[in-house]
Amino acid sequence: MEFQLEQAREILKSTPSTLNALLRDLPEPWLVQNEGPETWSPYDVIGHLIYGEETDWIPRAKIILEHGETRAFEPFDRVAMFENSKKSIAELLDTFAELRAKNLRELQAMNLTSDLLDKRGRHPELGIVTLRQLLSTWVVHDLGHVRQVARVMSKQYRAAVGPWKAYLSILED
Fold this sequence. Notes:
Elements: H1 5-23, H2 28-32, H3 42-55, H4 57-67, H5 81-84, H6 89-109, H7 114-117, E1 120-123, E2 127-130, H8 131-154
Antiparallel strand pairs: 1-2
Helix pairs in contact: 1-6, 1-8, 3-4, 3-6, 4-8
C-alpha cells in the first residue's frame, strides 16, 4: 500500500482511543506485567508513546521541513519513559491523547504536499530519510505498540489457556 496522508492520520488519531479502551480501568497486574527482563509492560509502552509525541515525530518533521539534510535529528531515547512517566495509567492515557491531538493539529497545519512529503532529512543512525518515510514509520510504530500491548497482556494467560495455546499464535510471538 502506498502512503496516503489522510489514511495515516486516521490510524494516528485512533491509537489513543484504542489504548484507552484497552487499558484505562484495568487492575494494576494487567498494566505492569511484561515478557521478561528488558521488555516493556503496557504502562511502559504508554510512557514511550508520550515521549515520542514530545520529542520525535513532529519535531523531526519540522527539522526536515526547515533544515532538510543539513541538520540531523536528535537521537531518540527509547527508554526515557522509565524516568519521565511516574503517573497513573489514567494520567498517562490522558497525556498521550492530548499530545497526539496537538501533534495531529500541527501535522494538519503543515499543509503537506507530495513534494514536501518527499523532502529529505538526516537520521543520526539511518542516514537520509524522507518526510513520507518518517510519517509512515509513525503509523507503523503505533500499530506495533498496539500489537505489543495486546501480546504482553495475552501472555499473562499463557498457562491458563491450556491446550488452546496451540491455536493462539499471539502467545508464540
